């Protein structure tokens, strides 16, 4: 018998496969348990995060508030724009009303002036009618108005000059030698005898001594309109006749006083 026969071997006994498998299974179970526990622990650790699930709700509320604020801002802008349009329309209407008022006042003033002119023309026509009657009666009397045959000196020269222009054209502003306006002809006629007259009829109607239409003498200046505001002049040539640059259609003509009775007369000779 060997001296070592009774000595227990110091080698560790071999583990058989089933034992190893059992241990591996146990270890696997333990690891599985730990994994489950770890997962559970991780889940427990994530619980505070679970509370933040309310954030989407808060965010939706905030979005709603922002949308409502945007709507309110947009509505305010629309209201402001509408008010601005109304103000602009009101300003335009006020401006138009002011323009319409000014136009109405202008038309009223024009109508007033036209009415005044009509009345003045009617009064003047009535006056001329009265004068025509007076002049007709005066012309029938041999002692009322002397004939051209009695005109002498400067008066005769004036009459000769205006009669020499009969048939010439009437041109506004004309002063001869072949076209005249009424005051240009009268001024030129009296220049022949050294009498300087103003250029326009208004001034010529006050250039001499006022005389009655029933006491006219050849060479007197006849005027139509008021003294100082006359619009036409001519030269009385006797026998109830006058010579003047009448208008563009007539030119320089000789007409009876009854054709267009004058308003008055002045004597400068």
Considering the chains and any ligands shown, give keywords for the structure.
single chain; 269 residues; alpha+beta; endopeptidase fold (from Nostoc punctiforme); six-stranded antiparallel beta sheet; two-stranded parallel sheet; 6 helices; 54% helix; rod-shaped
How is this structure best described in words?
The chain has 269 residues and is α+β, with helices and mostly antiparallel strands. The chain has a domain at 125-267: Alpha-Beta Complex (endopeptidase fold (from Nostoc punctiforme)), CATH 3.90.1720.10. It is 54% helix and 13% strand. It has 6 helices and 8 strands; from the N terminus they run ααααββααββββββ. It has a 6-stranded antiparallel sheet. The chain has a two-stranded parallel ribbon with strand order 1-2. α4 crosses α5 (182-191). It is rod-shaped, with a radius of gyration of 63 Å. It starts with 16 loop residues before the first helix and ends with a strand.
């Amino acid at each position: 018998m060997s001296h070592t026969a009774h000595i227990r071997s110091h080698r560790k006994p071999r583990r058989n496969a089933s034992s190893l498998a059992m241990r591996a299974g146990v270890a696997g179970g333990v690891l599985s348990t730990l994994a489950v526990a770890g997962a559970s622990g991780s889940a427990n650790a994530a619980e505070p995060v679970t509370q933040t699930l309310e954030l989407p709700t808060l965010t939706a509320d905030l979005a709603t508030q922002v949308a409502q604020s945007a709507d309110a801002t947009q509505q305010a802008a629309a209201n402001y724009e509408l008010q601005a349009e109304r103000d602009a329309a009101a300003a335009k209407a006020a401006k138009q009303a002011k323009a319409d008022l000014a136009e109405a006042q202008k038309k009223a003033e024009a109508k007033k002036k036209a009415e005044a002119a009509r009345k003045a023309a009617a009064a003047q026509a009535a006056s001329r009618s009265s004068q025509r009657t007076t002049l007709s009666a005066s012309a029938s009397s041999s002692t009322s108005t002397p004939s051209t045959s009695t005109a002498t000196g400067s008066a005769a020269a004036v009459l000769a000059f205006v009669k020499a222009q009969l048939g010439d054209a009437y041109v506004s502003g004309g002063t001869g030698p072949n076209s005249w306006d009424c005051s240009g002809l009268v001024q030129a006629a009296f220049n022949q005898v050294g009498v300087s007259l103003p250029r326009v009829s208004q001034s010529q109607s006050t250039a001499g001594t006022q005389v009655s239409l029933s006491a006219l003498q050849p060479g007197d200046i006849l005027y139509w309109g008021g003294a100082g505001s006359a619009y036409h002049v001519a030269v009385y040539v006797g026998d109830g006749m006058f010579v003047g640059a009448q208008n563009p259609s007539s030119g320089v003509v000789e007409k009876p006083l009854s054709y267009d009775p004058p308003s008055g007369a002045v004597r400068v000779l």
